[in-house]
Design goal:
The protein is mainly alpha-helical and 87 residues long. The protein has helices spanning 7-24, 33-45, 49-60, 64-74, 79-86.
């Protein structure tokens, strides 16, 4: 599956990577598809407030079709989050 993001969502994904790197010291290269997916999976499971806030901003920047792709990638997307994002 190839994820194609808008400029806005790329910006939020980049910021998400910076937040995670600052906390975990692990760098994720967004040009590498597997590392990008790993970052998204990690953030989906995180309880860290800073990561959750930025992950939420990333999810808000996605089109509804991409939310479905992210849900398939992570294995879950909280129903409440999806309802809030999509409507």
């Amino acid at each position: 599956m190839k994820l194609i993001f808008s400029q806005n969502s790329i910006f939020h994904l980049y910021r998400l990577g910076l937040v995670v790197t600052g906390i975990t010291k692990k760098k994720y290269r967004l040009r590498n598809g597997e590392e990008m997916k790993s970052l998204i999976r990690y953030c989906n499971r995180s309880d860290n407030t800073s990561i959750c806030r930025q992950y939420d901003a990333f999810l808000h920047s996605l089109e509804p079709e991409m939310l479905t792709e992210i849900e398939m990638l992570t294995g879950s997307l909280l129903k409440e989050t999806k309802t809030r994002l999509v409507g």
